[in-house]
Design brief:
The complex is a heterodimer of chains A (238) and B (305). With 238 residues, chain A is of the alpha/beta class. Chain A has one domain: P-loop containing nucleotide triphosphate hydrolases (Rossmann fold), CATH 3.40.50. Helices cover 38% and strands 27% of the residues of chain A. In chain A, helix 3 packs parallel to helix 6. By secondary structure, chain B is mostly helical. Chain B has a domain of 211 residues. Chain B has 11 helices and 4 strands, in the order ααααβββααααβααα. Chain B has a two-stranded antiparallel sheet with strand order 1-4. The chains are: A alpha/beta (238), B mainly alpha (305). At the A-B interface, helix 2, strand 6, helix 3 and helix 6 of A face helix 6 and helix 7 of B.
Chain lengths: 238, 305
């Protein structure tokens, strides 16, 4: 078994008095694509936000490469190599595509290296190069998702947390996004993919977890999960 | 005076006044853009800048290496740094603990900071006007029959230069881009690895330093300082920021210069004497708010999923 990149141990988060995560355990190993499934309000986004420290955990811990990062600041966590591509892309709309990419490597002092990384992102997403001088807000939904992932690639992350990259996109675009995620993974980035669309997520992932109102209710190989009766009924819809 | 002379004279007055407004408006606009705070203490930062520059000039005897101009420049740089750090300190002590509190709390904190600043200066100066003497003299040149002192000309050039430097900083450097990014979305910038609190502090430094420069220029130009001098210019600069589109940096510069020009030319309109100039400029503000509520350079909000 390869080394553990990210592990959540009885992680708890709450909004006011309401617990959104009720002590979840989750592990992502090097080179894996792990998917976290669940319906609306199950706590998927909350899990990612707690890992990236946008929301503070109130119990348990988040460990990255064996180091406890539960109480680190979000920007420090990014610098360590954990990148969170948020739900809804969150493009900086009044900055150009190029500026969005540049800012994503804010802490990088080396401009030559920055340029190299931008070119690398453009190889993945040629459409972003065509639009590099345009405002981020003018991109289509699919292009915004590409930019969001491209921003994530700018820090050469060890693990990328993707929150619903398929949301609101046409099926053909979703397919190409999933292909890109696979490529990024092949380049050596571990992936934790949050999805409502269980079908495509399980096709891509090696392992999966199912989250239900703040608890992990099932976990296992993607192949096993996609055959599990109750999961098929609840999340695959057929 | 011929029409042409009056025009030139008012153009000059307007540009000077406008660049003061613009420099102060920048700080309002930057801080509003980044943390949505109307920083009432900003006008007092301008006033404190004036007094600190005077103290520095007195300390050096008005000159530096025996040169009056060099003295002014040194004093300005020092003033900008000191007052910039004061702005950062105020932000750290008074505002940062309130970032997650309701908007109204931080607004009231800003009012409190404003009172602390001007009352402190009032106590220190005894509430009196202080003469602002420089060794620059009244040398100058004629433009037609309009006499312009070197000081006046250089004040305009200096403030334009400061605005240009700020513009380049905002558009070209990573820190400037981070400021613009944070103005749009704090959390997203955090996820991009940016230390948001550090950039907010930098914004306060920049805004306060520019206001301090304006305060010093006002001292040099008017020849005196007073603890309440920030009040009117604060309102005017805020107006300028709104006219240009609050939160938009070129808008603050444009709004400032436009307001300065409007005020000085407004005094020349028949039946509207100079005592009506405030009525005139605020009427313009109302008109702009009616027809373009987001300000001249403000954009409509657009959302896309």
């Amino acid at each position: 078994m390869s080394e553990t990149v990210l592990s959540l141990k009885t992680l708890e988060t709450r909004y006011g008095a309401v617990y959104a995560l009720k002590g979840i355990n989750l592990e992502v190993r090097k080179g894996e694509i792990v998917t976290l499934l669940g319906s609306n309000g199950a706590g998927k986004s909350t899990t990612l936000k707690t890992i990236s420290s946008l929301i503070r955990a109130c119990g348990g811990s988040v460990e990255f490469m064996g180091k406890n990062i539960t109480h680190e600041e979000p920007h420090v966590i990014v610098q360590m190599g954990v990148i969170h591509v948020p739900e809804g892309r969150k493009i900086l709309k009044e900055l150009t595509v190029l500026e969005n990419l540049e800012l994503a490597s804010f802490t990088l002092k080396d401009n030559v290296e920055r340029q190299k990384r931008i070119e690398h992102v453009y190889e993945f997403f040629p459409v972003l190069k065509e639009r590099q001088k345009q405002m981020g807000g003018l991109l289509s939904g699919g292009e915004q998702q590409m930019l969001a992932i491209g921003r994530g690639m700018m820090v050469k992350p060890k693990i990328m947390l993707l929150d619903e990259p398929s949301m609101g996109l046409a099926p053909i675009i979703v397919q190409s996004i999933m292909k890109i995620i696979k490529q990024i993974n092949a380049e050596g980035t571990t992936i934790l993919l949050v999805e409502q669309n269980a079908k495509i997520a399980l096709k891509l992932a090696t392992r999966g977890y199912v989250l239900e109102t703040g608890n992990i209710v099932a976990e296992g190989d993607a192949a096993t999960l996609s055959k599990d009766e109750s999961i098929v009924k609840a999340y695959l819809g057929h | 005076m011929s029409f042409q002379e009056i025009f030139l004279q008012q153009l000059f007055n307007g540009l000077l006044l406008g660049s003061f407004y613009g420099l102060v408006a920048l700080g309002y606009s930057m801080v509003y853009g980044i943390i949505k705070l109307l920083n009432f203490a900003h006008a007092d930062i301008y006033m404190v800048g004036g007094f600190i520059s005077l103290a520095i000039l007195k300390f050096f005897g008005g000159t530096f290496l025996g040169n009056a101009w060099l003295g002014i420049v040194t004093a300005m740089i020092l003033t900008m740094i000191i007052v910039g750090l004061l702005g950062v300190a105020i932000q750290r002590v008074a505002y940062r603990p309130m970032f997650n509190a309701p908007r109204l709390s931080i607004l009231i904190t800003a009012l409190g900071v404003s009172m602390i600043l001007y009352n402190a200066v009032m106590v220190i100066t005894g509430g009196e006007y202080r003469a602002y003497k420089t060794g620059l003299g009244y040398g100058g040149f004629n433009m037609g029959s309009v006499y312009v002192t070197h000081t006046q000309a250089i004040l305009i050039v200096a403030s334009m230069a400061l605005m240009l430097v700020l513009h380049l900083f905002i558009t070209r450097t990573m820190y400037g881009k981070a400021m613009r990014g944070i103005a749009l979305d704090h959390d997203t910038c955090r996820l991009m690895g940016i230390n948001v609190n550090k950039i907010i502090a930098l914004t306060f430094f920049t805004g306060s330093a520019l206001a301090a420069a304006a305060g010093m220029m006002a001292g040099v130009y008017y020849g005196s300082l007073h603890f309440f001098m920030g009040f009117v210019i604060g309102i005017k600069a805020f107006t300028a920021a709104v006219i240009g589109g609050i939160g938009i940096i070129p808008g603050a510069m444009l709004g400032g210069i436009l307001l300065g020009l409007l005020e000085s030319f407004g005094t020349q309109i028949p039946f509207i004497g100079s005592q009506w100039k405030d009525v005139f400029s605020f009427s313009i503000l109302i008109l702009i708010l009616i027809f373009k509520p987001t300000g001249l350079l403000g954009k409509k909000e657009s959302e896309r999923m």
